[in-house]
Amino acid sequence: MKERPFMEKRDRRRGTVWGRICSFIGVIASGLLKVSSFLVIITVVSISFLTLYHYLLNSPYMRLEEIDMRGADPKLRDELIQMCGLDAGQGILSFHLHELKRKMESHPWIRSVKLERRFPHTLVVEVEKEAPAVLVRTDELYYVNRSGEIFKQVSEADDMDFPVITGLSTDNLQVQEELRQVMHVVSILAPEASPWSVSEVSEIHLRKNGAMSLYFNHMKAEIIFMWNELADKMDDLKKLANHLKESGKIELVTRINLNYVDGAVVSFERG
Fold first, then answer.
1. Residues 6+ apart with CB under 8 A from 235
2. Biggest alpha carbon–alpha carbon distance for the chain
3. Is 89 left (phi over 0), alpha (psi -120 to 50) or beta?
4. Sheet holding 201-206, edge to edge
5. pLDDT score at 34
6. Among candidates 115, 119, 118, 122, which has minimal Cα distance to 65?
7. Is the pLDDT of residue 5 over 80?
8. Do the beta carbons of residue 126 and residue 113 sit within 8 Å?
9. Rounded to whole angstroms, what are the CA distances from 101 to 52, 107, 116, 125?
């Protein structure tokens, strides 16, 4: 009779522990059910999106029908379409625009490209072409753009009616600085009227320590100057050339050196 209370307490403890275990199992089961339900929903949504995406890739309502290319002439347009494998009927969503951009910008005449899908049937391509400013002669003849960047070897079919840079250094770091200096000179001559415009320049020869020689089509004389002083000496050069022309001596001049504080030194043919 004295042991019954103890047995009743132990039974109550067992019941309490079991209840806690059952409660804990219930919480876990509820959590697992929620997670499972969430995973099922995610799976269904993902499959739905994949199905929809696959449908849109192959949908006749999302086919490429027009390439709206701006900034490219017909020849360049055809070359870009061919090199990128753009065909009518392809799914407009199947294009990887970054890859298309990379391919187009690998063309030597392309400086930059912007691409845009215009649903449902159009691919818009905005092209910025390279613009040659001068030619540079190293081992071969190359185009140089207005930023002083060499971008393409000149072929026989290319336009060669540009000033030619000679005397370029073989050091890559020095080449960049020399081309920058040349383009500064080109920018000085660009607004000049004929016969002193950059279009009348046949050659720009790089000398030592920043000095350059200019050769114009209208006179055979070599004109020597410092690359950063030409703007200040253009008026003096024009006046001197006019004086030599009026005096009938312009054809005898072999060199005009502008690198003098008090003026210029003119050299004439001997004899």
1. none
2. 150
3. left
4. 150-153, 141-145, 132-137, 164-166, 201-206, 211-216, 222-226, 253-260, 263-268
5. 73
6. 122
7. no
8. yes
9. 26, 10, 10, 9
Collapsing DSSP to helix, strand or coil, 265 comes out as strand
Nearest to 116 by CA among 108, 125, 107: 125
What pLDDT sits at residue 90? 86
For 100-124, letters b (16+ CB in 10 Å) and e give bbebbeebebbbebeeeeeeeeebe
**Model confidence pLDDT, tens digit, residues 160-219:** 999 999 999 988 889 999 999 999 999 999 999 999 999 999 999 999 999 999 999 999
pLDDT above 90 covers a percentage of the chain that reads 68
Q: Interior CA angle at 246 toward 242 and 247, to 5°?
A: 115
The pair of structure tokens assigned to 48 is: 């739905």
Distances (CA, A) of 188 to 14, 39, 228, 254: 100, 69, 10, 23
Which two structure tokens, joined as six digits, stand for 31?
């959590």
DSSP H or E segment with residue 10: helix 4-58
The closest of 260, 251, 139, 160 to 203, measured between CA atoms, is 160
Average pLDDT in the 12-24 region? 64
